[in-house]
TrEMBL record:
A Pfam family assignment: F-box
PANTHER family in alphabetical order: OS07G0440000 PROTEIN (PTHR34708), OS08G0126400 PROTEIN (PTHR34708:SF1)
Name of this protein: DUF295 domain-containing protein
Domain KIB1-4 beta-propeller: 63-355
InterPro entries: F-box-like_dom_sf (IPR036047), F-box_dom (IPR001810), KIB1-4_b-propeller (IPR005174)
SUPFAM superfamilies reported in the protein's UniProt record: F-box domain
Domain F-box: 8-41
Length: 383
């Protein structure tokens, strides 16, 4: 008996019947097997973006299509058990294991790309039996902010950037063929502390605590950098409210986002433990305009666009292509929500939505419940 059967040679009508009976996302996995299987089954039409919801110590995960308001459950791959999710982009997840190994995983294709271990991070040393960073079992929760990577990675062609370190935010990069993480800095970017990173149009955009924005090009042998925006020395004015630089650096989390048309946005979120009581000044949105000084102009309307930020590479989508979904909003996936479980208070995570034009928080319009782990934006790369 042949130990390697030619599965692609199965009768087309049999493949069609099998594929039609499979639940989502298993049908998507089925179509990704080979061209013959793909052509035998109609494509899965579940509009993105999706949210990936994972509970601690769970054997399953839940995908939620925001536009379709539809959920489906998926058995976790063995490689996704007990991991910390640290990034997402174009159908791939970045995950961190307790032994500090790092991988990119496509959960629908069951494909894995191993990145260099975090034990190779700059300044990661064992001193007298203790770690220069927090203890290993706390490393993923307190030190790694996110991993951002270029789209369509392969084992022989990938580029990834890690934002890590508390209280100082460092950025490092790794490329296919390398065996370690390298500090990402140039002569003009030394001694910076970073707060967010985003991949767009072949470059990695990084924002510092002082609201400087740099664009790093890692396609060559050595990194090159372009200064996109200098620090607003006197702060920023958001209509009738002025935010001094001291407040921007001390009490506001910073996010970078990009629209589908290439517009760059800066989002400030005031760091508080509860979002319910926040007013409009807790969230401020600016659009980058290189033809004016200061280069950031306040925004009170995103039109049909909404921005999705979190530990993922930031995403934008148009409400015109997502009937019934909210327009002119910023979605956050790491909002703290206090809940009572078995008589005790827990600080979980949920998705909250900020209406830019109305200047207020809006309901998420989804069946999402608070989770112990932050939800993750996910854009499937196969249909």
């Amino acid at each position: 008996m042949d130990s390697h059967p030619e599965w692609r040679l199965l009768p087309r009508d049999l493949l069609t019947k099998i594929g039609e009976k499979l639940p989502i996302p298993h049908r998507a996995c089925f179509r990704a097997t080979c061209k013959d299987w793909c052509s035998a089954v109609l494509p899965v039409v579940i509009p993105s973006p999706w949210l990936l919801l994972v509970g601690r110590n769970s054997d399953t995960c839940t995908f939620l299509s925001i536009p379709a308001k539809r959920t489906f459950t998926y058995s976790l791959l063995p490689e996704l058990h007990g991991v910390q999710y640290v990034g997402s982009h174009a159908g791939w997840l970045a995950v961190l294991y307790r032994n500090l190994d790092v991988s990119l995983i496509n959960p629908l294709r069951a494909t894995r790309i191993c990145l260099p271990s975090y034990r190779t991070l700059p300044n990661f040393e064992l001193l007298d039996g203790s770690c220069a960073h927090p203890p290993l079992n706390q490393f993923s929760y307190y030190s790694v902010t996110k991993v951002i990577f270029a789209a369509n990675p392969t084992p022989h062609n990938y580029t990834a950037v890690t934002l890590y370190g508390i209280p100082r935010g460092e950025i490092t990069y790794a490329k296919a063929g390398g065996d370690r993480w390298n500090l990402l800095q140039t002569t003009s970017t030394r001694n910076r502390s970073y707060e967010d990173v985003m991949y767009h149009d072949g470059k990695f955009y990084c924002i510092t605590f002082e609201a400087e924005v740099f664009a790093f090009d890692l396609s060559g042998v050595s990194p090159t950098v372009t200064v996109v925006a200098e620090s607003p020395s006197l702060g920023l004015t958001h209509f009738d409210y002025h935010t001094p630089l001291s407040r921007i650096t001390s009490i506001h989390s910073k996010y970078l986002a990009c629209s589908s048309t290439g517009e760059l946005f800066l989002i400030l979120r005031q760091v508080l433990l509860s979002y319910e009581s926040l007013g409009w000044k807790a969230i401020m949105v600016w659009r980058y305009n290189p033809h004016r000084q200061p280069c950031w102009e306040a925004v009170n309307n995103l039109g049909n666009t909404s921005l999705l930020v979190g530990i993922n590479n930031s995403i934008s989508f148009s409400a015109e292509n997502s009937p019934g979904e909210r327009r002119d909003c910023v979605y956050f996936t790491e909002a703290p929500v206090r809940t009572i479980v078995d008589g005790r208070e827990e600080l979980n995570h949920s998705i909250v939505v900020y209406d830019v034009e109305q200047g207020r928080w809006a309901p998420a319009n989804s069946p999402l419940q608070p989770h112990l782990l932050p939800p993750i934006w996910f854009t499937p790369s196969i249909s």
